[in-house]
Protein 1
Amino acid sequence: MHEWGIAESIVRAVLEYAENEGIKGVWEVVVSVGELSQLDLEVLRYATETLSKGTPLEGAVFKFKQEKARFKCNRCGWEWGFEDVKASIEEKVDVRVRDLEGGSDLPVHYMPELIYTYASCPKCGSSDFEVVSGMGIKVVRLKVDE
Amino acid sequence: MSEMLDYRYVAAKANLSPVKKALLICSGKGGVGKSVLAASLALAFRERGRRVGLLDLDIHGPSAPLVLRAEKAELLGGRRGLHPVEASGVKLFSLYYYVGDRPVPLRGALKESLLLDILAGVYWGELDYLVIDEPPGTGDELLVTLRVLGSKASAVVVTTPSRLSLSVVKRLVGLLRREGVEIVGLVENMSYLEVGGGRVAIFGESRVDDLGIDLLGRIPIDPRLERALASGRGVKAAEKYWDAVVKVAERIEKKLSR
């Protein structure tokens, strides 16, 4: 359950930011979560709100929004989504990380950039493509009292 | 607010806080034997009773598992992130386990992002030394690790006596000094070859004194090293190489304890 570690760091990062910027209260934290991370948004929400208790963030609403992954080939211009290649990646990649709390994950769950190792353009086969969206976890908006 | 709110900087600092010292094994050029030396130093510190981690940051050519004879391992993850693999008593993280022989075709910003994922996502626990095998040069890998590690990082510079290697090392040393990184010293690898009781300087006579850095040791070319690695017996089977590495490890600890 990698989500709890990420949630803890998000809470700490927002607390540090608020302190450094002299922000009095934070009411809402909006986080964009790239589809490639394959994180459980409900676990993230529950974990951040639980971990905020007893801190200046207690009571703040955490909203996690999944950003769909889109790719564009630099060689042939083809565009595609994660759903177009996910099944073939799961089939051909034999590496899994066993979660000590149950289940197993593809390495992209921990390191989304490794999509460049596992995927290629479905049309021309090139590895020279862009991840247009859907990579990484970003705090995109805070609602605060100045 | 982008960098301040990139949770990975916070996660990396938290994950690395139980690490007492990060030793960056750096070189100006590739091909100077830095990866084998980094893995060997990790082993030598372990034999001296230290708690040691080895972080193989060579994204395009990870090789530490081959040196530590731990090519196969079960990969584990948990609440704090990825768990390093245990290899000869050393905690090891290498992309080798995740990509095998597949290429990792990443450009600059993506490479930096992957490094942050690794620094933030690997939980080491308590360590005396985290030995970091940095890719050659002064690129993203070095800059990102320095940014995250701050004063926890000290550098060991590796070169051969070759004029080409030394000229590039000067740039590396310049960068490390500018960033305020403690340079523990310099290791001259492939320094000489012992032939018939004498020493032959294959790459010419040593010029490392010109750099103004303490010399931690000269490591000979040991023809048995390649065979020892290829046969799976490990670096300790190359006695001349291993003896020199152990002395370097002793000198590093002596310098760090001052």
Note: The radius of gyration of chain A is 18 Å.
Protein 2
Amino acid sequence: MQLDKKKRVFDLIALASCSLIGVTGAASVSSASEASKNDWKVDTALLYYSEDDRVTAVEPVIGVTKIFGNDKVFSSKLTVDTLTGSSHNGAAVSDKAQTFTTPSGNDTYTVAPGDVPLDDTFLDTRVALSAQMKQPLDRLSTITYGANFSTEYDYRSIGINGSYARDFNQRNTTLALGLSFTKDAMDPEGGIPVLYSLMENQEKEGTDTRTIVDALFGITQVIDRNTIMQFNYGIGSSSGYHNDPFKVVTIVDEVNDDLAYMYESRPESRVKHSFYWRTKHHFDKDMVDFSLRLMTDDWGVTSETLDVRYRWSLSENSYLEPHIRYYTQSEADFYVDKINSGSSTTEQVSASYKAQGEDFSADYRLGNLDTTTVGLKWGARIAGTQEFSARIELYQQSGDTEAADLDALITQIGYTFNF
Amino acid sequence: MRYRWVAVLVVLALSGCSNLGVKPWERNILAKPSMMLEENAMDSAFDDHIYFSKEASSGGRGFSGGGCGCN
């Protein structure tokens, strides 16, 4: 009996962990209706992310889930994210030493000839808090609603979300609709760089905001006793400030001599469409989890993402899970490596771009980019109520410029317990 | 008119889906925690954050969101 109860608790917890949308629910709702009261779950994890010669992030997370007797599930999560290291500032590699002004405008740093220009003053701590409630509306439908808040030195974000899901066809089909609204505010030290301004002039002004509205439509379908599929269509619209206030573009003359650095300018709106297909199939003992994502936006970026995980069951309570992810994207319409001034002065280039309202960015994340992740996870359940996990992954990026070439190591440990 | 077409498509999709699936007593494998779509919510959240900050695309599985000055 005790084991049965624990089994039901784990089913409930898995249900509680479901994303806002597209959750099947079907397989576990019957268990949920038998919920026992006063069931808690605590999730803890520590992520260590380290790029070669660039950013290092340490991110502890604690999540608490409470399952109520009337099938309501409340969950909350606290994340602390500490970032240090160097980040590409957008400038092109040069055969001469380059000197840049720090984002605060109070200091300078110099990059050696041939090196990728990295701003080594990168330092920030982000604290994020989220809370979510999931509850049944009737026998076949559920609603989920929640809020999230995060703050860092120069950035704040607040968001709300809600979704509705209903089961059909003997709970083999679930349709879901979700909406989220997020408001972000940027307040970099010394102000936001004036659009099209030159770095040497250090023209800064105030703060800015961005509003993001997302809608997600999902269908989850049980295919057979071993297979479940999920299809999502997402549309996201954002408006407001989209620039990275720390990114510049190099202006060069006809002989490719570096002349100056101009702060980037991106469009003030963006609309993204995503199509997502996922399949989970259980073999005799093992399980494969496959997903494909296609994405396109009105900035000209298109991307494809393939993700495959294979859970190799070592025993009833432990597993090894190899993981491969491949991602490729095309460049945004306004992506540039550098700007050629021709016979104009840098001031004339700046004035010309401003007059035409032409967007440009040398952020390699908006250029052609291929990334690969290869990893391995180990997990084990102990005494039916505790779970340990550890994973290690290698993330590699490559693109059109040296700045895009990046290797990172992702390591994570996790411990979950129920009471 | 547009909504009528949407309604027709939804009905057709649901009709097609009605031929798939299992009976309630055939859910023993689907009910395993490993078959839940968000079994590894913590991993997914870490991954979403990493890829959001390093790539131009985000979301798909869930909301594409914002909430971070990293991109």
Note: Chain B has a mean pLDDT of 82.
Protein 3
Amino acid sequence: MKKVLIVDDAAFMRLSLKNILEKNGHQVIGEAENGKVGIMRYRELNPDVVTLDITMPEMDGLTALKEIKKIDNNAKVIIVSAMGQEGFVREAIMYGAKSFIVKPFSEEHVLKVLNSI
Amino acid sequence: MSKLSHEPMLEMFIFETAQLLEQLEQVIINSEKISSYTEHNINEVFRIMHTIKGSSAMMLFNSIASLAHSMEDLFYFIRENKPQKIDFTELTDLILEGADFIQTELVEIENGREATADSCLLIEKIKVFLGDLKKINQISDQSCKNNEKAETIKQQQYYIGSDSFAPIPAKKMFKAVVYFEEGCQMENVRAFTVLHNLKDLVSNLHYFPSNIVEDDSTEEIIRVDGFKVFFSTEYSLEIIREILMDTIFLKHLELEELVGAEELIEFEKNQQAKLRETQSPEIKMIEREQDLEAHSKSLNQSIISVSVSKLDTLMDLVGEMVIAEAMVVQNPDLRGLELDNFQKAARQLNKITSEMQDMVMSIRMVPLSATFHKMHRITRDMCKKLDKEVKLEIIGEETEVDKNIIEHISDPLMHLVRNALDHGIEPTEDRLAKGKPKSGTITIEAKNAGSDVLIIIKDDGKGLDRDGILKRAKENDLLYRSEEDMSDGEVFNLILLPGFSTKESVSEFSGRGVGMDVVSKNIETIGGSVSVDSVQDGGTTITLKIPLTLAIIDGMNIKVGKSRYTIPTASIKESFRPEENDIITDPQGNEMIMVRGECYPILRLHELYNVETKITNFIEGIIIMVEQDTKNLCVFADELLGQQQVVVKTLPDYIRQLKTVKGLAGCTLLGDGSISLILDAGGLFNL
């Protein structure tokens, strides 16, 4: 069981992820609708894993990733991204994201990624 | 609204996408106003389309997803290349068309039908537009690619620059071939992850395909042939294997130690040559960050969305609770008992229930802004079609009303704005001839007035034609009084009557056979009223008076015989016992009463509803004066029972379908369990 923080501006995406995670025994301890809130929640909740969307208002996923890494260099961050954003995903990997999930995602993919880190 | 109960995911999808579309429309209309797209707005549209694409792909609504994708591409191009020549009108039309398409599909989906419409045509149109855009701005595909390359090349340097070209120490050399699972997507980025994981442990790192960073089509090669990595390291084969085995979505790994490394040396040469070629790292990360700061001022509220049906249920429950409270506190068994402690507790209960009521009400309150902003789009479309110049001003959009009410005022409002645009505002030449400013103004204003909200739609057009209205009213036999006696206000309000429409020709936007009477019907169903005022050549003002909420009202309970009635307190002016000599009966037998020199008609409730009562003489009963739109009427009843908050319930279908019982707004349960009929002040006048 992992404690997960979901950061995505689309409530729909948060719900999809949450459904998948909770169905499989993980715990979603927090949600955030942009990078800024995401960082705040990270500080508050200290989750095992963070899923980060890239394109978000206020603060995007990459900036948030860097900030989270500043707070805890060992933070486990998974990038959730759509096709066509390969460049950003690469950047995220360099900044220390553990892995990534491609939207639209399947339950199987999400679990595999989550269980592998 | 929805006919089927949806799965929560679908519901969320529809809700959020609809919201995004609203935002999109807002951005587009704002941009058009300043006739350019700011960087922030372009980003917004990009982001909205990106989100819609992602969500609809998850829900397998492919036509929406691909449409959103093509719009995302278009805005990506605009964002990255900042073309100088853009036909903004065409761009706006295109995006709005796209938004409309998605909107229509959403409605289909919401109604439980398949979203089957084909977006190909529209996508094609967007592609053509994008192609033209590239052409006229002389940006070829090649140069866009270059742009992207410039960005990625820097990353590559950042990565390889660390230690890969250090002199080769005497270490073991390995070759690894990594195969990924089918369907895991973005294989090239996954390959990049592999490199990233290795880079701290190995040196002299080379890989094939070597352009995974620049070229996303390499994922196809990796999918088929695997990703080949060459490196030297001092770690053992086992450790390296372990690290590589950790790769997510790894299907198969081939790892071997190399002896003769010709393949490798070849590689190295290529790599170095390539690196020398590309030394132009100008990347605009900073710009993006600045952009973000620029619009990070919006509020940080934490909000959850709840389905309306739950709120409706909560509202009903609170309503029931109010009734139950009355039943307990006013229970007939308690009559005549002295119960100090009970009264104290009852007061406490009363306080809490009324607080709860207020809370539930406030939860259901929604600002009018979304409804108002829809009018921007209508104004825009109509101005284009009618070739008029009109400015729409919105005041007080933050005013809140009950969610149910919002649904009822959207259509009337749209109708009124259309009317103002079509009939009210004159063509530009006429305006100039009259010495008015070239562009017309329509103002929509909302404000609170007691327990009502006023929505005022004002235009500075030609105003209503008094004589025309009178003529038309005479033709249609709608005059209820002689012409000379009617005030301007009364004449103008004639247009609200059913069967009235001054426009001879039917245009595309307004006057599709439904007229102002439909507007006034709609507003009346939610307990509101409409009034019209106009000045020749100065414009027309239409005021909608709308109650804040529907469900719970303050009412005065009255008794007639064994029946109970409730009159909304808001419409009661006064109540009094009449004196014998105030009563007047005219030759037709109409009864009237004189109050402070004014004469008012009297309505006997017991006659109206055929109720048996002993009190038929005015001086034995009580008169309640009700007011509606400056008209007054005196209602005669047996006695007043007291004031109370009542929960409005709709009348049962079998009564409503009769349509012969008039003047009722609904019914309610009283504290002693009896049913009371709620009188509709407006309806009583039309008897």
Note: The two ends of chain B are 33 Å apart (CA to CA).
Protein 4
Amino acid sequence: MHAHEHRAVAERIERSMRKCREAHDHELLIEAAMLAGSHWLNARLHEDGVSSAGDDVMHTYLLTVNQHRRLSVSQPEAMQALGAIEDMRPAFVRGDAPGGPEAARRAIGLLSKIRPTHQ
Amino acid sequence: MLIAAHLQKIDRLLQTRSRLDPSADFELWFWAGMNAGTHAFNAALHHARLTRERGAFAMQPGVYLVPRADGALVAELDEPGDVLHVGRPVIEAVLPPDIQRIADAMERMEHHRDPCIREGRPATPAIVAACAEALDECLHLLQHRLAEDRHACA
């Protein structure tokens, strides 16, 4: 996907997120932050010429160490934020650890660090 | 997780999904259904005693977050409990026919995951319908499996 296509999907997902509530829908809000965040990250990487369309990041933990290091040099805050959202999934999305709504709030805050500031 | 916890997750995810428009909100609508179906698959596997029913949360195949008494979550290596997706990890056993049908339905649904969520392919009404039917089949099969238990106990 090209940068403008990633942006369009991220914006769509964020519109859908507004139909969810932290208190009741924390699983899907965390998943949505992860999905939208990965599209924002790919848009930024493509726009900066660090990666090309067709060479998208799906999850930060699926990157090789070298890829992760390279992309983190380009987008350190966004890479770290997406990784932090991904790390919430075992406990609060797949699992039922206490604190799901608070985790969703944190995920939404982290998403704002991945979204380009000019959006 | 425990079967009861999987069932609670399914209920929560279906409630969330019901507030989403399958077309306008396809990404999240699909994701809610995929997660609900995966919980159904896990509950069925636990019920058939093919995977371990345990209060632990899947991180990656073979690695689980385990809650401790003090509330901390600690990563441990363990035998298969919850799978992340059908095939992750592969269950090293012949699945009972109903659970195989759940796995097949999930694979039909997840066939649309990357193209429509990550690669920009539009979700057509036919894709929406196929995903909805796949989830309905998963949930129906799980309910039937669990109900048979209740009949046996009655």
Note: The mean pLDDT of chain B is 95.
